[in-house]
């Protein structure tokens, strides 16, 4: 082939090293007969990869072959443990893509990988595995747990944590002539991996981060090998992000000597440039024990073929001698498994294909053009790149930029282009070609100036009672490229507010900025009908040239006033787990929550978190020092119905008690790895019934149906935040004399460290209404209620729903303002910190800009 580089090279010459990356199975290798064929156009046995895997026989001891024709397969694929010896062959690596966009976010806190390989003896050739979520959070393209898994001529595209080799028993993985890219820890895990002649592309970060890490191995103690990179290339990125070769996952402050990883990563004959930091490697944190880490290099070279300056490498890393390299041959690392035998010529390199990666279009502004960037996966000189543009997706495209790579090391390309005029869109693709090689045409991207209205959230049924409007529900509204105002119009009898409920109207207009942007705005909606009845309709959002957005509205207006909600039981959790007698309603009995399989924090130096504190509240975990792994007897990252804290609400007389909601502040200290929370309740002590809470609010407002604190739809905990959850819809439930409400709060945590991870609960407040008689409600004597009063360190103020203008101010007897608190929009209770106040009487004033209420407070 014209201008292709050979693989027969000398180890001291850069061009020789580049030759290792020129490979691809020739078309003649596809002449074999395959057991199954996957084709999106219906010309094969199946149209999805997962369907073919499902059809493959279980328990094979000889290869079962699956051919995947060119196509973009947007699916998540799992090869189960009972399907060994599968061989997947793509028609071409540039055009056979298995891709998905799942990330470790609150709505999906599980395994995010596009492809999961749990079986052993799996081979993949000429396939791109991709997770195109972005640069963070964790979003895997490949996750392996089996043994003897081999890849050749494959691409792995991702951001954070692209490839995980998850086995912790030395299971083996082999990557031959592959391309792997990412930005953070993008090759990680506890398994054993050999990477031969691979391109490891540490990309320039788009999220503004100025640093990254290539590997994050957590090699387990006693394992002789972790990751070994042989004759690999780390190309230069675009110059604004620098990387270390690795950092030691699970060798940190939270690790103990028994579970601390003994990370092992070795780079042999690697070509690298200024994208790699002079220090080469780094610790995880101040608790890293470097004496158990083996970070090593052998003859790392720059792009001129000179040995890399290692004078600034961390002192605990190793530079190997010639004799040491015998310990890192393919056979030494992989033992009795020879991946070269899985297919003919599997370990023989052939000319590299043209494969464009990371094609990106970033829209500019009125004063700056759009930016279009891409890189080639395997370095090849003499490739021509043409950027094509059209104003119609299926219209006529014309080249707007052409360039040719002069040398193979030029892998990053890009240009700029003016943004489209208002109301129009530009569509782009890149065509990469060279005589003698197959041309690669990328997906089509768009840069749009079309007016667009965006919304986040939906509405549940509204309930209006008496002469009062319903409670407000919120969504987020924004706009892009708008040429006129964003008009918001609800159906008759519904009202909207764009200022947090300070003013309400039958319609509203959001005015875009000069560049057509309406920033994300909280839009409140309520039902305020003049007569009793059922109401349905929609909320319309319109703007000139934009597609109309319509959201369903429905609600009921009843003659009877809505039930009022007051505190029944409050567990502050600051000093003990006893509820507050001062707040407790006279209609219910006091109670102390109980654990099952959770224990309170020991508060030791290893635990670091006290069992009770004003900062965290109550701290607990499966172990007293904060461990959650299944090896320690915990649930790990999955909720388990045997791990919970249980609370009870019991009427103490003959008068019914209505219970509607529970609120609390929750958090898992030191981790966001599968930190889930759910609440389930029962009237029979879970003997004959069980029900999930019916949703509520969290730090971002209304909880979505996919993460509403139900057991199978748990909340994903991040920072310390308050949640309010409804037990049984808006009306709640009524407990008759002799009945009891039992609710359980479940937690999980996927962190594999053995200390310092604690579930925390603070200010657990059950609300409802005592003395319920014939459906009427007890009248509230005041709009503000303080519990306890007198108070010592803190008091809970129950107040009307806070708007954007709401403040709480505390005044001394002399009229001096001693404290001001700004209430979160939608809150109905605020905890007042009184520790800085002297003993005496104070005045507490609640103001929402239009009305105000006051209450007396006594500080003891």
UniProtKB/TrEMBL annotation:
Residues 35-332 form the Pectinesterase catalytic domain. Residues 1-31 form the signal peptide. Keywords: Aspartyl esterase, Hydrolase, Signal. Transmembrane segments: none annotated. InterPro entries: Filamin/ABP280_repeat-like, Ig-like_fold, Pectin_lyas_fold, Pectin_lyase_fold/virulence, Pectinesterase_cat, Secre_tail. Residues 786-858 form the Secretion system C-terminal sorting domain. SUPFAM superfamilies: Pectin lyase-like (SSF51126). The keyword Flavoprotein does not apply. NCBIfam families: Por_Secre_tail. Belongs to the pectinesterase family. This is T9SS type A sorting domain-containing protein.
């Amino acid at each position: 082939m014209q201008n292709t580089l050979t693989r027969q090279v000398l180890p001291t010459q850069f061009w020789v090293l580049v030759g290792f990356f020129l490979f691809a199975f020739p078309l003649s290798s596809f002449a074999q007969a395959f057991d199954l064929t996957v084709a999106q156009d219906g010309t094969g046995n199946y149209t999805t990869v997962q369907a073919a895997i499902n059809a493959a026989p279980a328990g094979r001891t000889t290869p079962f072959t699956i051919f995947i024709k060119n196509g973009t397969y947007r699916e998540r694929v799992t090869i189960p443990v009972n399907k060994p010896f599968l061989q997947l062959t793509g028609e071409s690596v540039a055009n056979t893509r298995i891709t998905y966009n799942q990330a470790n976010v609150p709505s999906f806190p599980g395994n995010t990988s596009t492809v999961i390989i749990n079986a052993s003896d799996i081979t993949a050739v000429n396939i791109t595995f991709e997770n195109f979520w972005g640069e963070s959070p964790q979003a895997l393209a490949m996750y392996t747990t089996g043994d003897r898994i081999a890849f050749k001529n494959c691409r792995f595209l991702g951001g954070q944590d692209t490839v995980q080799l998850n086995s912790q028993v030395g299971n083996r993985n082999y990557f031959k002539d592959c391309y792997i890219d990412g930005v953070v820890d993008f090759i990680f895990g506890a398994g054993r991996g050999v990477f031969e002649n691979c391109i490891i592309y540490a990309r320039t970060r788009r999220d503004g981060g100025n640093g990254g890490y290539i590997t994050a191995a957590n090699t387990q103690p006693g394992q002789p090998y972790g990751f070994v990179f042989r004759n690999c290339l780390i190309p230069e990125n675009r110059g604004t992000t620098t990387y270390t070769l690795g950092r030691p996952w699970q060798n940190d402050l939270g690790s103990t000597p028994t579970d601390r990883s003994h990370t092992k990563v070795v780079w042999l004959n690697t070509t690298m440039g200024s994208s790699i930091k002079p220090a080469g490697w780094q610790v995880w944190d101040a608790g890293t024990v470097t004496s158990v880490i083996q970070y090593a290099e052998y003859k790392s070279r720059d792009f001129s073929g000179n040995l890399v300056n290692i004078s600034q490498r961390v002192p605990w890393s190793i530079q190997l001698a010639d004799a040491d390299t015998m310990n890192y041959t393919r056979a030494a690392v992989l033992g009795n498994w020879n991946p070269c035998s899985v297919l003919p010529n599997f370990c023989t390199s052939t000319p590299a294909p043209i494969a464009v990666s990371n094609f990106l279009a970033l829209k500019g502004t009125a004063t700056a053009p759009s930016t279009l960037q891409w890189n080639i996966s395997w370095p090849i000189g003499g490739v021509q790149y043409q950027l094509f543009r059209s104003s119609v997706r299926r219209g006529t495209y014309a080249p707007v930029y052409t360039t040719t790579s002069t040398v193979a090391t030029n892998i990053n390309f890009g240009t700029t282009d003016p943004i489209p005029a208002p109301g129009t869109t530009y569509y782009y693709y890149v065509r990469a070609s060279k005589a003698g090689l197959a041309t690669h045409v990328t997906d089509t991207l768009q840069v749009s100036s079309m007016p667009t209205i965006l919304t986040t959230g939906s509405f549940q049924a509204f309930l209006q009672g008496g002469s009062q409007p319903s409670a407000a529900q919120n969504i987020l509204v924004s706009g892009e490229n708008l040429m006129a105002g964003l008009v918001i119009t609800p159906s008759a009898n519904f009202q909207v507010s764009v200022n947090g409920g300070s003013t309400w109207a039958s319609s509203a207009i959001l005015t875009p900025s000069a560049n057509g942007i309406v920033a994300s705005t909280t839009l409140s909606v309520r039902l305020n009908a003049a007569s009793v009845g059922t109401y349905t309709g929609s909320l319309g959002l319109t703007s000139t040239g934009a597609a109309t957005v319509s959201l369903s509205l429905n609600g009921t207006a009843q003659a009877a006033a809505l039930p009022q909600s007051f505190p029944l039981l409050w567990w502050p959790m600051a000093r003990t787990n006893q509820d507050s007698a001062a707040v407790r309603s006279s209609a219910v009995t006091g109670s102390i929550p109980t654990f099952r399989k959770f224990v309170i924090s020991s508060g030791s130096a290893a635990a670091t978190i006290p069992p009770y504190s004003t900062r965290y509240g109550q701290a607990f975990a499966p172990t007293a020092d904060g461990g959650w792994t299944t090896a320690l007897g915990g649930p790990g990252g999955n909720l388990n119905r045997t791990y919970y804290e249980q609370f009870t609400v019991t009427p103490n007389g003959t008068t019914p008690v209505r219970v509607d909601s529970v609120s609390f502040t929750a958090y898992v200290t030191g981790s966001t790895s599968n930190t889930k929370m759910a609440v389930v309740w029962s009237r029979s002590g879970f003997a004959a019934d069980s029900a999930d809470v019916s949703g509520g609010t969290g730090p971002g407002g209304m909880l979505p149906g996919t993460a509403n604190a139900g057991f199978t739809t748990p909340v994903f905990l991040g920072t310390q935040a308050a949640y309010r959850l409804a037990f049984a819809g808006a009306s709640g439930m009524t407990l008759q004399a002799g009945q009891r409400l039992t609710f359980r709060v479940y937690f999980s945590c996927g962190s594999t460290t053995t200390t310092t991870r604690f579930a925390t609960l603070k200010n657990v407040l059950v609300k409802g209404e005592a003395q319920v008689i014939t459906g009427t409600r007890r009248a509230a004597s005041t709009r503000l209620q303080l519990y306890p009063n007198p108070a010592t360190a803190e008091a809970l103020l129950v107040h009307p729903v806070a708007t954007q203008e709401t403040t709480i101010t505390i005044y001394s007897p002399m009229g001096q303002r001693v404290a001001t608190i700004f209430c979160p929009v939608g809150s109905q209770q605020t905890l007042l910190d009184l520790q800085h106040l002297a003993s005496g009487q104070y005045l507490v004033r609640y103001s929402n800009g239009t009305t105000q209420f006051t209450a007396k407070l006594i500080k003891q």
